[in-house]
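Q&A log
Question type: sequence-to-structure
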Amino acid sequence: MTSIAKACNVSKASVSRFCRCIGLQDFLDLQILIKSYVSLTEHKFHYQHQNSHDLRDYVKSVTDKINQFNQNIDIKIILELVHDIHRYEKVSFLGMMQSGHILMNLQDDLASLRKFVYCTTDAVQIKDTIVNANENDLIIIFSARGYFFDIILPRIRILDKNHYPKIYFVTTNQLKKSKFVYKNIILDTNYNYSSSTILFQLLSNMIALEYYNRYEIE
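Response status: OK
Response body:
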């Protein structure tokens, strides 16, 4: 906070007031938002053949990831997830910026099938959703890099809850597992920007299609 105040030529109290003005609880919430943002362009647009300028290499790397996804995806988990989406009254889809448009598209697809779910990528709303959740809530988290809980946990202390919500954690980066997550859905073993968005979209489409096949309301 001292560094930001000095760079902006304001007091630390002004920084705190700014945080509250934009809807945050305090400066630590601002730190959470900053940590969730991928600012390095080289990292964001990196793909497997980083030294090649042939875009066909990009297509090949994505194709390879899709084939791997097809071989390794656990269909039983997806079927169970769809069943839970249908039977739980309170369903929330949470994620950071990169997965935001995918979650919103899935929310729209489910709404067209008369299943209304909550969706947000706002750090404050995410915190409130998990803090107020209980065993009657279903939460599906999309985390491309797998660091979702490293960003959120210091503020919400979900480990201290007596009644966990049912949580599915979807990621393209296999990291340490959290004991309060019901099921991990690992779409890839290592994060790769070039393919993670596409794999998320594939899973989103599969969820919507299966929900349509099972629970279409005529």
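Response note: The chain has ten helices and five strands.
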